[in-house]
Design a protein that fits this description.
With about 240 residues, this protein is of the alpha/beta class. It is about 35% helix and about 25% strand.
């Protein structure tokens, strides 16, 4: 049975969660020796339940992970993920708006790294389907360096369901894959959606058929292809550098 609880450890993750997404924090487990004054203030401001850090639910969930640094935050996944309908009705769309859509990205470290790049280069959200996609986990949060708490993470029924809706709202859809046009040649005059696919299989045909353009990343002939997280970082950097002033 799937649980709605997510446990993340460490000062950085705790600080980012309490600062940017306090509504998702349901409990904080703190060691007696934990003395980070700023985080204690954030805990008090959030008004969440505080429990001693000891053997139990939080420790069991973090088995095999790195040191907790004296703090573990329990979050509600339901409050981390934003439904697509609520997100699309609230976003202010401009020519400088970009969304990242993941489809079949299975490695949580890749998902976290893409979220980090999306936040770094000014994307407005990361959209993720409910099926055949790595869910939000502690590993995703860690790989995102806490950026998962600063950027809307939007759950979608499927790419096939939402891409036509985004097109109607003026978005141009770009598939990142081998193609004739390189990303350096694209001008991005409209709101953009960047679609990134599975680590091995790429973007499936039915989804690519819904995309307006396929963009490739120019590389040396001798070099192997980049993995999906590196491709996302390059693509979003290029888009960011070309945004309208």
């Amino acid at each position: 049975m799937k649980t709605n609880k997510l446990f993340v450890s460490g000062k950085n993750a705790a600080r980012e969660a309490l600062l940017h997404m306090p509504h998702a924090v349901t409990r904080v487990f703190v060691a007696k020796t934990f003395n980070d004054h700023d985080i204690h203030i954030l805990i008090k401001k959030a008004g969440v339940e505080v429990s001693p850090l000891q053997s139990g639910e939080a420790r069991a969930d973090l088995k095999g992970n790195a040191s907790s640094q004296g703090i573990i935050v329990q979050l509600s996944l339901q409050n981390i993920l934003l439904p697509f309908e609520k997100f699309i009705d609230s976003i202010a769309i401009t020519p400088n708006t970009a969304l990242v859509l993941l489809t079949g990205v299975e490695d949580p470290h890749n998902v976290g790294a893409i979220i980090r790049s999306a936040a770094a280069f000014g994307a407005s959200a990361v959209l993720m389907p409910k099926e055949r996609q790595s869910p939000i986990t502690a590993a995703v949060i860690k790989a995102s360096a806490g950026m998962a708490f600063q950027l809307p993470l939007v759950t979608i029924p499927s790419p096939q369901a939402v891409l036509p809706m985004l097109k109607k709202r003026g978005f141009k859809i770009y598939a990142l894959a081998a193609g004739k046009q390189t990303i350096s040649e694209a001008s991005f005059p409209s709101p953009a959606v960047f679609v990134f696919g599975n680590e091995g299989l790429g973007i499936e045909k039915t989804i690519r058929a819904l995309c307006d353009e396929t963009l490739s990343i120019p590389m040396q002939k001798e070099a192997e292809s980049l993995n999906v997280a590196a491709s996302a970082a390059v693509a979003l950097y290029v888009w960011s550098s070309k945004r309208s002033a």
